[in-house]
Amino acid sequence: MLTTVDPLLIFLTVAIITGTAIIVLSQFIGPRKNTAVKLMPYESGMDPIGDARQRFDVRYYLLAIAFLLFDVELLYLYPWAVTQWRIGSEAAAATAGYASVGLPPAFRGLVFAEILVFVVVLVSAYAYAWRKGVFQWR
C-alpha cells in the first residue's frame, strides 16, 4: 500500500539516478578536445580586455536590483491570485479532505486591500526608478 510520501520518494530516486547517469555518461561519451580557443577566458561574448577586478558602473547594480524587485513581485501576486479567486464548492472541498476552497469570503476584501497596497508601493517604486533614469542605459 502506498503512503502519501511514496510518490515523492519514487520521484526523487528516479531524478537522482537519472541525473547521476547523465553526468557519468557524459564523461565517457562527450568529446574531449582542448584547444587554445576553448581554454581561453570568455566573458559575455567578448574577449576579456584589461583587469578582471575593474569597477562596474553603479547603473548596472541599480538595473539588477530593479529587475529583482519586479521579478519577485510575481512570487507574491501569483499565489494570491490563485487562492483569491478559486472557484469550487465547500462540499467538493470536504470530500477531497480540504477544510475550504480558496480564501474564506470574510477575508477576501482584507487580502485584496493588502494586495492593492503592495501594488501601489510597487508602482510608486517603478515610477521613482523611471524618473531617476534607472532604465536608461547611457
Detailed description of the structure:
The protein is flat, with a radius of gyration of 25 Å. Helix 3 runs antiparallel to helix 5. The chain is built from five helices and no strands. The protein has 138 residues and is mostly helical. The chain has helices at residues 6-29, 36-39, 58-84, 90-96, 105-131. The mean pLDDT is 79. The protein has a single domain (6-131), classed as Methane Monooxygenase Hydroxylase, Chain G, domain 1 (Up-down Bundle), CATH 1.20.58. It is 64% helix and 0% strand.
Short structural summary:
The protein has five helices and no strands.
**Cα separation of the termini:** 64 Å
Helix and strand run: HHHHH
Mean pLDDT: 79
Quote the CATH topology. Methane Monooxygenase Hydroxylase, Chain G, domain 1
Question: Which labels suit this protein?
Answer:
mainly alpha; 138 residues; Methane Monooxygenase Hydroxylase, Chain G, domain 1; flat; single chain
Structural topology:
Elements: H1 6-29, H2 36-39, H3 58-84, H4 90-96, H5 105-131
Helix pairs in contact: 3-5
